[in-house]
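Format notes (please read before filing issues)

Several people have asked whether sequences and structure tokens are stored in separate files. They are not. Every record keeps both together, in the order shown below: the sequence lines, then the token lines. Line labels are part of the format and must not be stripped during preprocessing.
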Amino acid sequence: MPAGRRARTRAAKELREILAGDLLPSLCDPVRIAIVEWLTLHGRSDIATIASAFPQDRSVVSRHLGLLRRAGVLRQEKVGRHVYFELDGPAVLARLEAILGRFREAVVRCCPPEGEPSGPTGTLRRRKAT
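Then the structure lines:
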């Protein structure tokens, strides 16, 4: 396999791993987006308080909270019989920055800027006329 092809294959694998990770998909559901927005507005809250703000059943909201926690979007703390959730902003930023860094590395291998050779034939990338 030619070196250029290997680099593009590695880039494709890297992009697939980035996009298939748990963070980005966790933020692609309207209910989870609404939960993140609600927690941003209201801050640390227990499950009962969060669930009361949504039309979905408490068990559904609880599953969404668990998924967001496992994805690193939320922090969870148990105090007595209550479980509290809050947005973990620093962790989300760190993960997004890491994703962006990995994405940049992959793009360098697969997607040269306009005017540079693209692909094995050496043809130049040109912008489509609008």
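For reference, the curators noted about this record: The mean pLDDT is 85. The first strand starts at residue 45 and ends at 46.
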